[in-house]
């Protein structure tokens, strides 16, 4: 839909002159045609999808006459073909008594087939030379079926090298590739262990002062020593990113709770000692 | 896995057939039996080497575990080369042994063998006699290699001197191939060759 639009905008000067010259001799329809075109000129980018159609808005012209105008206007243009891709060109040329269209479309189909084959061979496993199933990619960027690569690693347990470039490869250092429809996993072969999982790392925490909020656990620090040094010690704590809070119920959570209680009591003891001293 | 070996060989066969090298007649491959486990390869002797102009036929046996293990390749055409046995045609090439990689194909193997013909490694020999001749008497090595290429691979260079010496031994009832091998080994010294044969 976009390509005819580009063509019409490119050819606009000739169309407007053609329409104006014909408007003097022909009926009102042509002048409406001109109105429609001027609308397209004034707002060519506002509605991308509809600009290729003539819209005689606010007029009472029936749609079939509008479409016939479109056809006549089409015939008056010289589409050079540079603007148009293969399929559209064939469609538009359909009405003309030209001999070259059939061979053109056939050539296009052949080209598409070639491209298709080239696309397929891009995703061939480097071991079985078939399109990769359960695809994994090595750190050096080479694509394999996981069963093939696994078999290769088993064949040489002491020299694990990429079959293509002989870089080091390892089971834990390959990345599985999940296409959009890879949820329908076809039966992974029985002897082959499951494909290694992807390594997903959380993005780095946003740098800067974390704030005094209690949302991610209470954060307290003590500096012991003479005043200025202690001040520095506690000040320097600010920039450090804190590890994420342990999940409630895990062993780490209990450990952290115990630690925080211990430090709380320690702080209380210190404060009490300050009072008495 | 045998299934995988066969399907891969079929693909590789197509690859070789489509390759540029087959257009240039520099490598060729054909089937020996219907099971796709045994093939016959052919490589042209590379230019600017004593093997130029010759066609060397190779026996390729594809193991069940292909492509995880290398194909077994051997020269059927007799050849005088430090890394190829002049008797059995066995090849000493790392990629056909430890350095094999599953991504290598029949095409790359044939091209590697062609490269081996162009760049011998006398320090890692398969045929010690040829290797010592290569190192010590390179001119004689070139002559012998050209003569062998002419005799077995259809090479263009003829050496009437060699032919007459072989004929002398044949007159003594020695087989042509044996006579050529012994003379080559003895640096075309007829006296030493006869001593070696009749001692």
Automatic annotation (TrEMBL), chain A:
Biased composition (Basic and acidic residues): 103-116
Biased composition (Low complexity): 14-27
Pathway, per record: Protein modification; protein ubiquitination
Example GO biological process: ubiquitin-dependent protein catabolic process
Transmembrane segments: 258-276
Enzyme nomenclature, EC number: 2.3.2.27
The protein's enzyme class: transferase
Region called Disordered, residue ranges: 1-29, 43-72, 90-116, 179-203
Keyword Zinc: yes
Reactions catalysed according to its record: S-ubiquitinyl-[E2 ubiquitin-conjugating enzyme]-L-cysteine + [acceptor protein]-L-lysine = [E2 ubiquitin-conjugating enzyme]-L-cysteine + N(6)-ubiquitinyl-[acceptor protein]-L-lysine
Polar residues compositional bias, start-end: 48-72
GO molecular function, one term: ubiquitin protein ligase activity
GO cellular component: endoplasmic reticulum; nucleus
Superkingdom: Eukaryota
Record keyword Zinc present: yes
Keywords: Membrane, Metal-binding, Transferase, Transmembrane, Transmembrane helix, Ubl conjugation pathway, Zinc, Zinc-finger
Record's subcellular location: Endomembrane system
Domain RING-type: 125-166
PANTHER family: E3 UBIQUITIN-PROTEIN LIGASE RNF5-RELATED
Name of this chain's protein: RING-type E3 ubiquitin transferase
TrEMBL record, chain B:
Domain UBC core: 4-154
GO molecular function: ATP binding; proteasome binding; ubiquitin conjugating enzyme activity; ubiquitin protein ligase binding
SMART domains cross-referenced by the UniProt entry: UBA, UBCc
Active site: 92 (glycyl thioester intermediate)
Superkingdom of origin organism: Eukaryota
UniProt record, GO biological process: positive regulation of peptidoglycan recognition protein signaling pathway
EC number: 2.3.2.23
Membership in a protein family: Belongs to the ubiquitin-conjugating enzyme family.
Protein name: E2 ubiquitin-conjugating enzyme
